[in-house]
Design a protein that fits this description.
single chain, 435 residues, alpha/beta, Molybdenum Cofactor Biosythetic Enzyme, Chain A, Alpha-Beta Plaits, Maf protein, 3 domains, 5-stranded mixed beta sheet, 16 helices, 17 strands
């Protein structure tokens, strides 16, 4: 089976936004044993949409299209599909009701489903008129429910090809693919050999260093295949195992997974989308420990990362961004004498910041960052990319310096400094690095 993924939107063809949907869908199809033969990106021009769909219908068995299902004038996916299939657009009343229910809920209108369209028409006629187009489908098409957004998807067969049109919003697309498209593919027997992908994430060593200890695993032609990638200093092993069933594919992958965990246990922070903050949260949860942070050069990134996780409020007590010397003194008790003698970017100030945060928030662990994020402000003694970390517990305070590279952009230095700080917390909680 061959598939084509089409991403529609002028924001994609103009470079204003990166198309992440196609990569995600290609990976999802790969797990089903379906080859993604073509990736097509098109603008919001009707002729381009019709041409792309018509060509795809001639050369592949499955088309996954994202974007162009909204209520605005440049949302033309449904019109293009109607043109290619030779169908008329017809109103699907249940979809209109679902759309009106969504808007009624957002506006605090409580009414029965059978009366929601009338209720919304009475109060917001323009809103209903604008969004009615989202309930229009080519005759003969099936509706793909969108339980988290207003635009339903479309499922339709045109010639040899099955077409699934989904929203361009990544979160909506992924839910619709899993809940609506996958079951239909399974029912049609389109999923072939199963490919299972295990992604194991690590932090603390470079890509080449890690691969040097895993050359037997990443060798070409090995079964299962193992790849290694780096993204924002997180190194990932990807294990690709194929089998007739998910269970067979998993059994093929497991010995390799076990080998990676055995060799790199201290570096592993999680699997799939899990990052350092997930690993820290897991350790805080299991040990019932509390955490706070004091940030200078990272500007709140540590707090931002950890507070993205639901439920962490029981363990993360808070943080302060003390960017200026005065803020370090006012909020953390760092003395002017210490700042004048050693400078803000120093082991001594990192230690004082961490201890100040530990006492202010009354936590088990506090982490601090102070450094030179650049591109200006560096010196021979304290170059751009130098970051001091401080970690304070009831047992004392420890500091360490990380050099993240004078050549790195400011945002990269900040991102990596935040990760190094959280990783130190993880290592401390696991007993690998004690204060």
């Amino acid at each position: 089976m061959r598939a084509e993924i089409i991403a529609a939107g002028a924001e994609l063809t103009s470079g204003q936004r990166v198309d992440t949907n196609s990569a995600w869908l290609a990976s999802a199809l790969g797990e089903l044993g379906i080859t993604s033969a073509f990736h097509t990106t098109i603008s919001d021009e009707m002729a381009d949409n019709v041409a792309a769909l018509a060509a795809a219908c001639q050369r592949v068995d499955l088309i996954l299209m994202t974007g162009g299902l909204g209520p605005t004038q440049d949302d033309i996916t449904r019109d293009a599909l109607a043109a290619v299939s030779g169908s008329k657009l017809v109103l699907d009343q249940p979809s209109l009701v679902a759309i009106c229910q969504l808007f009624a809920k957002r506006r605090g209108i409580d009414t029965a489903p059978e009366k929601v369209v009338e209720a919304l028409l009475e109060k917001f006629p323009d809103l209903v008129a604008r969004n009615r187009i989202q309930a229009m489908f080519p005759a003969g098409a099936e509706v793909l429910e969108n339980r988290v957004g207003s635009a339903p998807g479309i499922w339709m067969k045109v010639g040899r090809a099955v077409i699934a049109c989904m929203p361009g919003v990544p979160s909506e697309m992924k839910i619709m693919f899993r809940e609506q498209v996958l079951p239909r593919l399974a029912a049609m027997g389109l999923a072939q050999q199963v490919t299972r992908i295990r992604k194991i994430n690590m932090f603390g060593r470079g890509e080449s260093e890690i691969e040097a200890d895993a050359l037997d695993l990443t060798a070409r032609g090995r079964i299962p295949e193992v790849g290694i990638t780096a993204h924002e200093a997180t190194i990932s092993f990807r294990i690709f195992a194929r089998g007739e069933t998910p269970e067979i594919a998993d059994s093929i992958a497991q010995p390799t997974v076990d080998s990676i965990y055995s060799r790199f246990s201290d570096l592993i922070i999680g699997e799939n989308d899990q990052e350092i903050e997930h690993a820290v949260f897991a350790e805080l949860l299991s040990q019932n420990k509390s955490l706070a942070c004091a940030e200078s050069c990272t500007g709140g990134l540590i707090a931002h990362k950890i507070t993205q996780l639901s439920g962490v409020s029981q363990f993360f007590m808070g943080g302060v961004v003390t960017y200026s010397n005065q803020a370090k003194t006012d909020f953390l008790g760092v003395t002017q004498a210490l700042l004048e003698k050693h400078g803000a970017v120093s082991s001594e100030v990192a230690a004082a910041m961490a201890e100040g945060a530990r006492q202010k928030f009354g936590v088990d662990i506090a982490i601090s960052t102070t450094g030179v994020a650049g591109p200006t402000g560096g010196s021979a003694e304290k170059p751009v990319g130098l970051v001091w970390l401080g970690l304070a517990t009831a047992d004392g305070v420890k500091t360490k310096a990380v050099q993240l590279g004078q050549e790195q952009p400011r945002v990269v230095i900040q991102e990596r400094a935040a990760k190094h700080a959280l990783n130190w917390v993880r290592l401390h909680l696991k007993g690998i690095e004690k204060v």
